[in-house]
Amino acid sequence: MTITRRRALKLAGITSMAAALQGALSAEGMAAVRAAEPALPFAVTTPMHVGQAALRVRDLNAMVGYYSDMLGLEEISRSGDNGGTVVLGAGGAALLHLVHMPDAPFETPTSAGLFHIAYLMPDRQDLARWLVHVARRRFPVTGFADHSVSEAIYLTDPEGNGVEVYWDRPRDLWKWDGDVVTMGTNPLDVDDIVAKTDISKDDYSKAPANLRIGHIHLRVGDVAKATGFYGDLIGLSSTCGKRADAGFFSSGRYHHHVAFNIWNSAGAGPRDAKSTGLEWFSLELSNGADLAQLKEKLKQTPSTAIADGDIGIVDPWGTQVRLVGV
């Protein structure tokens, strides 16, 4: 089969760049060039960064198949009865835990919960190879966007969980005004991306070894409460100033490690712990002293649990955040 760059768009389910931009606008309110292996993207070298995430899923086999085929994640481990939990990752690093809950009701899109998990490609060529793979395999794509700091493609997995796959532009191209970084939502030049690879074949068989989760984007019921939790309590810093509809927070001047919005979930209450969707995600702290200081700070919070030196704390809507040392 011959594939042109425009056909890549068509096969991915996007009929025009206008449609691609509209999909991205509904998905996001807003560099490293690959170094010698095994260097990791800047996003996961900051003092605090996203490590892993867990989804509660109904059809375990289908979800394992989707993330294995669409993103090329490898199976790291499998445990428990009746499917239990399957851990997927890249280069031997665990990234995504799929927790089997076959009778779970589907989480509604207007409740608090996951907006998307964002998987960060090491460089633009990897993104290009993956995009040709997605087009050839006909995985539906819901949006494309140029966010100034990054280039992103959006999908939805078989159980309704949002997925972003992106790469970061070099940090010296990011524009900062004090503590606020410019993040736009503009049309993505897909032609220019896929020009970085051979579009006549699919040579993306597995995820790059240094692919990681770059950020987590959440649906919340109240921006101020989310800011208090992820900013004031956990200690991430805002990179978008004060917004009434969303927040973008990071460590070490990354554009964002955690984002949240109320676009579809304003006023949402606690999540149903028995439904599908995000069960937990981890924030990794590279400095042991920082972890110890945060642990002392969080001891007074009722929703905090500490085990084996790690901290588990539940946000105002019931999503568990695990703070772990690395």
Automatic annotation (TrEMBL):
GO terms for molecular function: dioxygenase activity. Residues 1-31 form the signal peptide. It comes from the Bacteria. Keywords: Dioxygenase, Oxidoreductase, Signal. InterPro entries: Glyas_Bleomycin-R_OHBP_Dase, Glyas_Fos-R_dOase_dom, TAT_signal, VOC_core. Residues 49-168, 212-326 form the VOC domain. PANTHER family: CATECHOL-2,3-DIOXYGENASE. This is Catechol 2,3-dioxygenase. It comes from Neorhizobium alkalisoli.
